[in-house]
Amino acid sequence: MLKVSRQFLGLRGNALTISITEFIATTGMFLAQPFFSLYVLSLGASVVELGLLNLAAALLGALLMAPIGYLSDRIGRKRPVVISGFIASLGPLLQAVALDWHQLIPGVLLASVLQIVWPIRQSIVAEDLKPEERVSGFATFFTIVMLPSAIMPLLSGYILDSVGLDAGMRMILFIYGGLGLVASFLRLKFINEPKTQNMPESKSNVRVGTFFSVIFEPIIKVRMLQVLILGTWGVMFIFGIMGSFGAVYATEYLNVSKTQWGLISALTGLFSVFMRIPVSKITLRLGEMKALVFSQLGRSLYPIAFVHAQNDIQLLALGTGYNFAFSLGSPAYQALITEYTPSHQRGRSYGVFGMMWTTLAQVSTLLGGAIWETYGPAWTFYSAGLVSYVSTAFLCAWLILKRKSRPSDDPLPK
After folding, report:
1. pTM: predicted TM-score of the whole model, two decimal places
2. Segment 377-394, tens digit of pLDDT
3. Domains of the chain
């Protein structure tokens, strides 16, 4: 087993195990993900059917994140993570042998199971980080996890160019499933069941009438978690809008070629991966709350400025600035959730936040499409920035009021 004394880049124990196994799993994911839509279309799906397939997988994950997080609080973290890993690994293997897009549905839904337990894996990492290590620890964790995103798309593109879309994607999906199985076996062998505070809830069955309140108990009882939700929900609109419409607007309205947009995405992605650890030092100097506010302000400006970019250099600068702001706030956000959630409730707390973010990303895509058709493409991005500024304004207002009214024994979060 991994011993607490074994460290790598400041991570130890379960946090190190999860980081390594996530690196293995995301290597396969980022190998398959960039061109999976083309594979679905090649099997006979329309663009609308492709959207519905992605929506079904995302909604399944969003609906089950919080309940599975609650389950992990009751039965432990290791079993859901290990079992879900083996189940999800079957997804790409089934996708690899599909002959029609309808046959992809079981594989896509199985693969989405791994995202359902993503909040549990985050909580395992949190429980192996000391309070003073959380900001830098989460920054290191996400650097390791996202490193394949800067490399694998280039390799998958080379494979597809060499052997063709159909044969190449089937090969890639087999690799994806195989790496998932490797990661699952490593989790089974090396993850130790985290030691959490004893649960005050009874181990008896929870009545259906109280199930909702039990799942959302950390959010209902902890005001700081409520503030984080209300103060940060807007930036998820930006994530959904830019992910769905950014490439379309850049290539059709900003006169950027697909090759240029791909290069911009690759460069900003590399910058994002390697800036996380250095930027986390700035986060520590500012304090979690200040860093989160500055991050929100910068990210909210991005979609508004994006519309007015004149060339690829400006788009690269804007994307780099957005990733800097994201790297400034992301570890602070994770650290605050961990700090204000009791250890025996972190599974459901991370699950609720994950459910909220996934749902908002899907909703923003639907609303963005409606705004695009009704008011014009530019207003899709303006609306994302304005919505984000509204939630950021709430966060700033709460901090100002808290600073003015807090008693001496109720210190303001850093």
Report:
1. 0.76
2. 899 999 999 999 999 999
3. 1-190 (1.20.1250.20), 210-414 (1.20.1250.20)
